[in-house]
User: Fold this.
Amino acid sequence: MLNVGVIIKLEPDFSEGNVSYNSDGTLNRAETKNILGPHSAIACNAAFYCKVKYEARISIGTMGPPIAESALKQAQVLTDAEELNLYSDRLFAGADTLATAEVLKNGIGKMFGENKIDIVFSGHRASDGETGQTGPQTAWKLGYTFLGNVIGFDIDLGRNVVIAKRLISLQGMDIIIEEIESSLPVFITIDPSYRSIFNTVSQRLAANKFRKEGTKRSEEYRQFLRVFDSKKLDLDPKRVGLPGSPTIVYRVEKIPRAKTNRKTEVIDPSNPNTLSPLIAKIIQIVRGE
Amino acid sequence: MEQFDAAIIGGGSAGLSALKKLSDLNKSAILIEAGNQIGTKNVSGGILYSKQDPHRRIYNVEDVFGSDFASSAPIERLIKKYFLHATSKNKIFTLDITALHEYKTNFGYSILLNRLNPWLAQLASESADKHGGGIITGVHVSDIQWIEDKTIVKTNELEEFQVKSIIAADGVNSEVAEITKARQKFKPEEVYFGVKVIIKLPENIIEERFHLNSSEGSAHLFAGDITLNHVGGGFLYTNRETLSLGAVYHYGSLLSNPVTPSELINVLIKNPLISEYIKDEVPLRNENADLSKEDQLKVQLSVSKLIKTYNELRYKYFSKNNVELVESGKFTNIEEIRSKIDSIKQDLIGKYGVQFVNNYVELEYSAKLIPDGKRCQMRKPYYRNILFIGDAAGRGIFIGPKIEGLNVGIDDAVRASIAISRSLENNNFDSGYMGSYYESLVNESPYTRDMTKIDKDYLTLFLNVVRNISMDSIDPRLAIGLRLMKNTRFRRVAVGLANILGYNKILPIVESEQTYVRVPNLLANKLGNIVTSSYVPVIPTLSERIAKLQYNDDSEPHIIVEDRRSEFMKKLLLLCPTNCYSYEGEDVILQHEGCVECGSCSIGTKWKHPKGEKGIIYRYG
Assistant:
């Protein structure tokens, strides 16, 4: 039985219409909708591939406040996970990537009744953090082989190895696809370009079945949810949260708004006078001016 | 290579019935559907019948999908009234033929396949799951090969797989039939060409206009001058909150006198009776031609939002579910919704010069070929270990107002499932064992008898329906014929003789311009009532109709024109329902992007369905 863990993150929804900013340009977290991070969703897809192709069991873990269970629910829809784990404790507040990795390491250790996890997937990065450090650091703490930028993989269960394709794109160089073989266990961060391909009848049938099951399970996701605090995770308070974070925040830059080529202006459609500037602009564009 | 007991190719109502039945017989079956979702490639008239026969078994939809079908399935309306309208300009002669509709009928529901088939799929899929089978969408079967004793299915999307048996439920343009050469392509004179539009009309207005009780519906057939001298006619079925308006003609008749399919619809819409049936109060924007372009745009933007809100509220208000708006807390009572609608209307009139005029609202344009079972049903509906069902086997009943296709496909599906189940139990898939047995089961079906012999009881009923019409002044020969047929003994002898001669000899007389065009025209002219329409419908252009359709474009065409200068291809310039063919010099060329996959060009082309998930995506069907 292949045991697969997935590390996910609840992130602000940066898509148009869902994100809200304070007047000083910083993110208004209270008003911004939170969703399962897009890179976490891709990691979930990779885990689902393991379920369909290798009949893997899936355990999902996330560190965050109680509200983060909504990300676990969304991840269960994508993966039909057997287990959802929320690592939540006030002591975890203010954690940098290293302190987060400490929590995740112990969390992964508790998955499936402390059975060894063969593969851990995580997203390439978080859309609100962008450092891409949590995955590799967790791998290092677990002592797992780390494979980054993975765009495709197959597992040889007989030999207990994974054969992965990594996308390496370095500035000034041709894009390289590296095929690499590694013994299990491994920690894999999934490249954003990853797509699961189910190209046999059995895989399609299994995918359909698990998708239905995942949707059904997620309706009662709390039955699958386990919440761990620092004690349950056997964590040393000095190694988590702010005390466990060696990163010293010297200065906080404003979170830049997503790049956009458009500016939005709200116009009252019931008042024709407010439409004049808009019409003028449209005509300008239509005329190619 | 993966191996499965049975593969069903095509996820229409027949294919889904086969999956459900095989699964209920504890057999493992997979269904392969090319559309990205079940129902997106299916079009029907459509009425789904459940029939009965005192002597022979019929397998109905409720036998396959459960006795609570009528209360659980997303059906439209229970058809309680059936009319035949003879038309001649503004004169209409109406005949109540409900008795014919009720003949051997348990029920007949109007349906929209994109609503019904996903429901059938859900039930079929649940049953199939239990036996290791299921539905796979977005996959197009491209080839079937027999290597030694293995049957190998190839697709554009998946690794090839092996099966013991196949049910071909891939419709009138069956590629399985084409691949296997199990039958010839249907000839134009063997198929009907159908074209249809879905028209939006509020639920309560439908009931008021057609004098219907809640959930009940009516069906209307049209013949006479609306046929534009073709053999066939028009139909209008009431759905829950839409109408299905269409025209069905012998394809041979259309080929001999080509006309644009959309024009066949337009002539129906222009008929005063129909234009009154489909009429609705529709907001018409003031063009404001005297305003500058800038100001016109300004007004358009403001009006769009208000009209959207107005329409949404109005359709809801005139529906059975209007109470939901109160329950959701948006309104305190029903009257408040009415006054909100009125106030938006007044705003649109007063502030923006919008007029509320009589017109109609079209939602979806569609087209398909329909096999005429009398002429093209496969005598041996099998090839090796493949059984053909429904449209793929050329099976459908079209005898005057008796129009049945979906129920025939379901009946076939059960019979094919029984044959395959027996073969799986005895591990014998030889055509002499499985195919012959299926053929014998199909021959036992009352539907097969309907496709081969004249039913004297149905004929008697028909004569009863028309007995009070004075035909003497219309067609003396027909009048004599009808008078003679009223004599029981003569009728028995005539039907016996006709059945000896066979449909082939009789059909050219019965299905002719005389019966579909001339007689109804004269009937309406001499005996019809004058109907006037209170408005002139503004009919969308073909481009506007195509623009409303949804496609997942395939960069590669799925059709290859074989002879660019043939007479047949030249006729397609008119006959293709979405105008995919045009001239390039003297050559007829194809632009496949707007294709609705009806197959009207398949006779003169190398025709395939698009690859998985590609092509037309019907929303109503």
In short: Residues 201-219 of chain A form the longest helix (19 residues). The domain at 3-239 of chain A is CATH 3.40.50.620 (Rossmann fold).
